[in-house]
Amino acid sequence: MEEELMAEKRPIISTGGRGPAPAGKRRSLPMAARYAINALLVLLVLVVGELMIDGGAITRYQTSVLQQVGVYIIMAVSLNVATGYLGQLPLGHAGFMSVGAYGCAIFIMRLTETLGMTGRDIVAGGPLVGLIVFAGVVFGGLCAAVAGVIIGIPALRLKGDYLAIITLAFAEIIRVVMLNIDDVLGFELTRGAAGLTGIPSYSNFLNVFLAVAVVCFLVHTMMKSRHGRAILAIRDNEIAAEATGVNTTYYKTLAFVVSAFFAGVAGGLYAGCVGVLQPANFGFMQSIEILVMVVLGGMGSMLGSVLSATVLTILPEALRAFSDYRMIAYAVVLILVMIFRPQGLLGSYDFSLSRVIERVMNRDFPWSKRAASDGKAGEEVSADV
Amino acid sequence: MFKNVSRRQFVQASAVAMAGLSLAACGGNEGGSEGGDGASSIKVGILGPHTGDVANYGIACRNGAQLYFDQLNEDGGINGKQVEYLVEDEQGDPTQAVTAYNLLVEQGVVGIVGDVTTGPTTAVAQQSVNDNMPCVTPSATAAEIVTYGNNTFRACVTDPEQGRIMAAFANEQGYKNIGTLYLKGDDYNEGVNNAFVEEAKALGITITTEQSYSAGDVDFNSQLTTIIATNPDAILAPNYYEDDGLIVTQARQQGYTGVILGVDGWSGVADYASAEDLQNCYYCCAFSSANDEGLAAQFTADYEAAYGETPTNFCALGYDAAMVLAAGIAAAEEAGLEAGSDEYLQAVIDGIAAGSVEGVTGTIAYEGTGDPVKSSLILTFTEDGAEEVFETIDATA
Predict the structure, then answer these.
(1) Based on the domain organization, do B146 and B113 belong to the same domain?
(2) Which of A52, A85, B99, B394 can pair with A57 through a Cys bridge, CB separation 3.0 to 4.6 Å?
(3) Hey, are the CB atoms on B99 and A60 less than 8 Å from each other?
(4) Helix (H, G, I), strand (E, B) or coil at B110
(5) Cβ(B108)–Cβ(B43) under 8 Å?
(6) Where is it located (chain A) (predicted)?
(7) Do A322 and B144 touch (CB under 8 A)?
(8) Does residue B131 share a domain with residue B30?
């Protein structure tokens, strides 16, 4: 099945090959091998990273920056589902992040209190802690997904600018609810303007990057599935998609809710990195910052989101030496990229390791190709492994 | 070779050149730390928001702390060692505060002056417990900051404490009926207001009404009408100076001539209300440049000489926080400990906890908690609008 698909040349989702294989049937990797190679690489990165942290090759400061990078990768990848794949422009992503952050933090704090665990027990780790953190992060994601449903159903009836404004407004509502919910409920939940403090630091390199890998995998497989294709179809032409039988309302809401869910997951991990949550930290600018990451990386490119989230998180830290001028340098980078790469760093190109391996297996290199096909290769729009 | 340069290529090349130049220009201003060389220096950190929305507080605290360390170095440093201060910016963001804190710890500081605002300070306080790193915050007033461990101290008094000071002052002045007007949704304003109301009721003062407003409001007439209708002896406005200036002006326009009380957020209100309207206003504050008493007057003169502007409350608190930290480090140095060890950090903490310093905002001593026992000033305004010390309220344990 996969091979048949791969052999077909389709306009929207490219097969990755830029023409027919040089001779005879194209050799390809079986799916199991593709997953095994990628899983192995993820595992390798995690093990090497963890060893380097334990051994002191990556310092604590660098580890804390890396954790932030992980959180923002998840934020950017999740926003990319709604922005790049679904083609909408939500401006309230930080709102979902805050719902997930508060949900996860409150869940974990209440649970550990009931179990009689201290902050130090949680930092120490162990299987029980792993389970609690997993449950907490998923709970945070579910809270955000519920908010996504509530916001998505009315918001997605609108398009373009109107959708942007209404999501912006909903994110503000979430922020104001966080500020005032205690007065309404009559007991302490978010602790309003003073902020939720004393959150145990349950996030570490390992669980943040495990989450990054899982989120990227889930988003990727979803986009390769029937559901993902339906979402891409809506982006490319909503009327045509509807005419071919795609339930546009359902799939728009689905993409929006998935986007919210993963933002909630990122929020939960963020809470564990910082240890204090204040509604003011999830304002309009936070949403914009994440949108900038997605646009800079290239809308619809997961690798683009990952790269730009990494670069934009590390850049202000790397420029610390410039002191007060660092924010100018950050802005200059943004302006230069937008002038010279308006489609984002990677456009809608996505990297696929298996595709590279297959090319090598077929001796199908770009430089040998160029001569053969007269450079008629265009931008690839793809979600291949 | 250059004759075929297209316009696009030219734009690209010049953009790259511009970027390169601007980076080079930035590089020239690099380096915030001075003094000290290698082994014979003591490293301390100064952490705060030096860019971003709350930069004015962070810069004021930083300037104050730098002034103290510079003076200390001129006088020979601590135990013959120069103090090398490392300045890190966190833009008022808790995430960056934690990162910057980790960076400072890695660079081998033995204590930190910071953080400045409540949210980031809480994040840093929670992190620093794990390292037992001595932190002295000049200005973060939320009560629980000092409760995570024994290593965090503050140089200012808490929000509730300010509320209690003003309630005691109101009682002493014989005001029997007081209305309040505060910003809702901000922990500072609400914290002061609630503590004031509680203390005032305990002292037998009647709170006639508690009115609130939202962030961004500029018209307070309806709330003021309600308050003035209850015929109060005084109005409490525990907010920041921009709002307080408007409240004072609008209250006077409504014909209210009674007393208006405030807290340290009033510092700077003179630019937002006329001298005439500010008559009969009192607020409590740690420091005033109008204070002509010894240390404060000396500090004002030194600060003006160093930075060319009049120091604010935050500058003085930054200076005092640096002084508190230096006193702790001096205690550790006297004990002959090696910097970088856990014992050294504990000795600094013990030194701060046990010691007492004569700061420019009053005598600061810690009696078993991270909260200082210190005096406060009650300030009022002269007829030409200048601040004037009305009274000094002594420390109450």
Answers:
(1) yes
(2) A52
(3) no
(4) coil
(5) yes
(6) Cell membrane
(7) no
(8) yes
